Amino acid sequence: MSDEQRNTVWRFAIIFIIIALGFVAVLAKIIYIQTVERDEWLKVAEKQVPTLQPIKATRGNILDCNGRLLASSMPQYYIYMDTRVPALHEKNGALFTAHIDSLASDLSRIVGGKTAAEYKSRITQAYRRGEKRLKVCNNRINYLQRRELEQNSLIKKGKYKSGIFFEDQHRRIKPYGVLASRTIGSIYGEDGVGNSGLEKRFDKELRGVDGMSSIQRIGGRNESVTIEEAKDGLDVVTTIDANLQDIVENALWAKTAEKHAKWGCCILMETQTGYIRAIANLDRDEDGDYFEAQNHAVQRVEPGSTFKTIALLAALDDGKIEIDDTVSVSRQPWKYFTVQHTDAHPMDTMLTVRSALAVSSNIALAKIITRSYEGSAKKFVRRIEKMGLMDSVYCEIPGADKIRIDIPKDTVTLSKMAYGYSVELSPMQILMFYNAVANNGRMVRPMLVTSIQQNGETRKTFKPEVVKSSICSKSALKDIRSALHDVVWDSHLGTASVNRWRGRKAQSDLVSIAGKTGTAQLIIPGRGYSGKHHRITFVGYFPEENPRYTCICMIEDPQYPYDAGMDCGSTVRTIAEKTMAYTGCYVYQDGVRVLDKRN
């Protein structure tokens, strides 16, 4: 082998040895990293993993029928400061020193809560400690305050020089305050899950879908990178009219406050559609002030005499009685087995069925219903069921009570059911029945929501729903409507007509109203029914000749003296007059009031 060949072999050998040694070195390093330095490198790797953070979707709005906000999520902000940013520490903190006074002054002026000196002291101490996330102030600021703060000379330099940054929090607000507050509902936390009312019923639509972002190290700085955009919640359009709601709430508040009542409830429904245009619930607190605490509109109670219309309609439609049949009543109680029935307006006379409803005679109703259904109480309840009243899903409010009309086991219970005891209905269910009477026998479901929208475009529409096309025969309906007319307009017998001093109850010169009063004794725990504590009601529709609206007013435990017709009837009259004026249903021609055919 020549010298040149030997040199070539040696060169290849040396290269091979170098490569082998390098491979061995790399393999040794890998083994060393995977064993000795494993934990340390795992910690480094963890630091490099992007931190995932949710992007909160903005909750949708709840709107009235005219597009006005009833509930909305408004952005508010917390102010934070990273006092460690290098720019604030360069040149012995020249930037910080030059701007701290103006920053503290603007915070005190715009945000408030502390003096400029207090803000300066708080920020300076955090700066010396090197706090990464100083919460500059505890209270949140709104968008306009943020914009004004962003004009500060230090904040204008950006968060990587000033250390100042804002974190948004969406707060649920109700621009109209307590208006329909209980029906609109509430949410858990500042912007969480629907807790009650429409917020709960339509939580899925309102909540939207959260997005996702990650905090990544880019260019030596932590940056938020959006992975998936949030999908904001949809808007819920209600049937409520904010102006009518204001009318109803003010009328109810005035009467409940006047009577120092425990609570009051009032609902205004559009007759043909079932749209709830206003719904008010007021509870009295320990100081005597009223606020929305419970949704009494969907909580069942013993209805008292408003149930008499239901009982009589059943008997009329079953052919058990005629509207002009007569029944005797007396000043003395009528004893039926173990129960004594008494009248609030005792008299010794013969009443027609029509006038028995007008004067709201318990004795007359007890006699009529027991004679009609004695031995067949089941048929009485089944006839009421056929009217559609037992419909369990009657509105969008979660937790609404179902009606309770049980088949009585004895005729004594039946006699009490005739005038509204041993049965339970919510004000909304009572209203639904009377609305059917006003709507030519057509029962529609009370509605609170008409559509779901996204950015002003309708995604889903809810149409009026017919529960029962006809609750009774035309003749029975005609008879019961004539009796409800007398309740208001028979000035001799009608419980909602005039009082003994000729003071008007539900009677009005501006709009004709028909309806029914109701008074029920309250049960006092441990004492039973009390003759001194009552629940009073008036439910009616207007204008009587062509009903546009049906309204119920119920007041719990008013202070004596009280009268269902004078208190609740006059409240509905006030609502009716203002509603007709607002909606423009009537015009005047040559000084004469006529129905506006355009409406």
Q: What are the defining features of this structure?
A:
599 residues, alpha+beta, Penicillin-binding protein 2a (Domain 2), Alpha-Beta Plaits, Beta-lactamase, 3 domains, eight-stranded mixed β-sheet, six-stranded antiparallel β-sheet, 18 helices, 36% helix, elongated
Describe the protein's architecture and organization:
With 599 residues, the protein is of the alpha+beta class. Helix 13 crosses helix 15 (411-417). Strands 2, 3, 4, 5, 6, 9, 18 and 19 form an eight-stranded mixed beta sheet that branches. The longest helix has 33 residues, at 3-35. The radius of gyration is 37 Å and the shape is elongated. The model is unreliable at 587-593 (pLDDT under 50). Strand 10 (263-270) and strand 11 form a beta hairpin. It is built from 18 helices and 25 strands.
